[in-house]
Amino acid sequence: MSKVAFSLAPLSKDPCQVYMDSRTNLAEVIEQVLQQIGPAHLTISTFSTSETFLRRLHRLRKASLVQTCSLFLDLKATKKTMELMAMMRSVCDEVVLCNNHSKVVLMSNDAHRVCIVTSQNQTVGGRTECGIILADFNIYNQLNDGFNRLRAAGFEPAGV
User: Fold this and answer.
1) Element holding 118 (H helix, E strand)
2) Is 4 inside a domain boundary?
3) How far apart are the C-alpha atoms of 82 and 33, rounded to whole Å?
4) pLDDT value at position 3?
């Protein structure tokens, strides 16, 4: 059985793609999208994150594939979140705590708007997860409006 289950087809030819597998990692999907669209601004929401995910994001940032990154996390995961805050701040330009259970990634640059909507938190659970990748400006804009509402209702934690 292959370690990587999902291989992203060219978004220019197939702007709506799905995965449903226990081997697919959200960070791998993000990296595949960035390899196609080039450096981008990321907006990410999750209930919970992990050191593994943040390390992968850090590597993508060092490779100049991530230009900016905003991370939205749920208030209920605050204890774990605070343990990773220094690492999150080293990778993300903005960290927002809010009432959130969504798992969404928005990626944008001058030419592209891509959305990933997934069941997967940024943790490794070994369970079957499902996601949809959409290269669609209208859906991107609707989800971005949702992030603006989360930002208005949430807050950035003080200190580290």
Assistant:
1) strand 113-118
2) no
3) 29
4) 58
